[in-house]
From TrEMBL:
Gene3D superfamilies: 1.10.520.10, Peroxidase, domain 2 (1.10.420.10)
Protein name in UniProt: Peroxidase
Entry annotated with the keyword Oxidoreductase: yes
Protein species of origin: Coprinopsis marcescibilis (Agaric fungus)
Amino acids binding Ca(2+) 2: 199, 216, 218, 223
Site, as annotated: Transition state stabilizer: 66
Domain Plant heme peroxidase family profile: start-end pairs: 64-311
Enzyme Commission (EC) number: 1.11.1.-
């Protein structure tokens, strides 16, 4: 009996004496179900302290979300069917071949972020494709209301430059956007669900007079507000002129992109869009699934390792979707055939004027 007590104490003391050692051997006593995932804890610490400047939901998160889209969407089944190189999808080619891909018009403003990510990748010896997906999941986890994204590791670091012309533009027609997304393997519903990213977004390159004007009233919260606010009638021009692919918005300081406005109103996407306006939880669940789908474009899911347990849990959101103060149900463009825009409460207070996103 005495021996049993001693042995138990020895185990406890031993465990306390070696906080660095966990069963999986990860740093700082952390655990991952698969020991091969341990490296990602070190990348996590590096990203949160440096790139995300103390785990903030600010401009670097928004930049990585543009990057993950622009990297992954470089994938075309029709080019492959025509016997050409169709792109490697979520392969990190936007970093590996930045000399080619950063010259694409759609990638304006991403150079500094790409170089910061390259340095992180080289420090930890991880592939650029994995790093982009990981930094995306960590970045979203810094934003209130975001899903805890899946993270799969194991993408090869060998890639070729993406063919040009595969990234949808803000002035593109809905048909062009839907067709381009479909050519990469994503449906119109996936497109709507992915665009929850625009609920933590601003613009820098479309209208310099209203630099970092947010795309919804809560650019640091992943929520329904983007879907609600893009569905309201556009009445206000925030800057001295409308920028490239800019249309009027319902709120002073809010930037509305033509593509978002059109997707909110097209019968192929408007009903899903309207559903997303009703529930922050639905946004979170659907966005997570669509991001998981996009993250494996060009890869076989089964060949990757699930390292999702390294991703921090985002802070949950308590607020309910609402119509911005000063506007009413009558201000919606009812765009879903046969289903009126759902009734939503109006936020209290004065009509907002939005500040630039941090
Ligand atoms: C499907 C069609 C899409 C189009 C046409 C589009 C277009 C754009 C454009 C033109 C900007 C402004 C960039 C700037 O001026 O700085 C932007 C911003 C942004 N986009 Fe998209 N986008 C699309 C889909 C997506 C997707 C699928 C994601 C991510 C999953 C995404 C994430 C973002 C984010 C986070 C920003 C804010 C960037 C910042 O604040 O610096 N977009 N998008």
């Amino acid at each position: 009996m005495k021996f049993a007590v001693f042995a138990t104490l020895a185990v406890i003391v031993g465990a306390l004496a070696r906080p660095q050692d966990s069963p999986s051997g990860c740093s700082n006593g952390r655990n991952a179900a698969n020991p091969q995932c341990c490296v990602w804890f070190d990348v996590l610490d590096d990203l949160q302290a440096g790139f995300y400047q103390g785990a903030k939901c600010e401009s670097p998160v928004r930049k990585i979300l543009r990057i993950v889209f622009h990297d992954s969407i470089g994938f075309s089944n029709s080019l492959t069917a025509a016997g050409q190189f169709g792109g490697g999808g979520a392969d990190g080619s936007i970093i590996a071949h930045s000399n080619v891909e950063l010259a694409f018009g759609a990638n304006g403003g991403l150079t500094t972020t790409i170089e910061a990510l390259r340095a992180v990748g080289l420090r930890h010896g991880v592939s650029y494709g994995d790093l982009i997906q990981f930094a995306t999941a960590v970045g979203e986890s810094n934003c209130v209301g975001a899903p805890r994204l899946e993270f799969l590791a194991g993408r090869s670091n060998s890639s070729q430059p993406s063919p040009p012309g595969l990234i949808p533009g803000p002035g593109n027609a809905v048909t062009a956007i839907i067709n381009r997304m479909a050519d990469a393997g994503l449906t119109a519903d996936d497109t709507v669900d992915l665009l929850a990213a625009h609920s933590i977004a601003a613009q820098e390159g479309l209208n310099g007079n209203i630099f970092r004007s947010p795309l919804d009233s809560t650019p640091q919260v992943l929520d329904s507000q983007f879907y609600i606010e893009t569905s309201l009638k556009g009445t206000i021009q925030s800057g001295p002129n409308l920028g490239f692919a800019e249309v009027r918005s319902p709120i002073q300081g809010e930037f509305r992109m033509k593509a978002d406005a059109d997707l909110a109103r097209d019968p192929r996407t408007s009903c899903r869009w309207q559903e997303m306006a009703t529930s922050n939880e639905l946004v979170r669940i659907r966005h997570r699934a669509a991001m998981a789908k996009m993250s494996v474009l060009g890869f076989d899911r089964a060949s990757l390792i699930d390292c999702s347990d390294v991703i921090p849990t985002p802070q949950s959101l308590n607020a309910l979707p609402s119509i911005p103060a000063g506007l009413t149900q009558a201000d919606f463009d009812n765009s879903c055939p046969d289903t009126p825009f759902p009734n939503l409460p109006v936020a209290p207070g004065p009509i907002p004027t939005l500040a630039a996103a941090p």
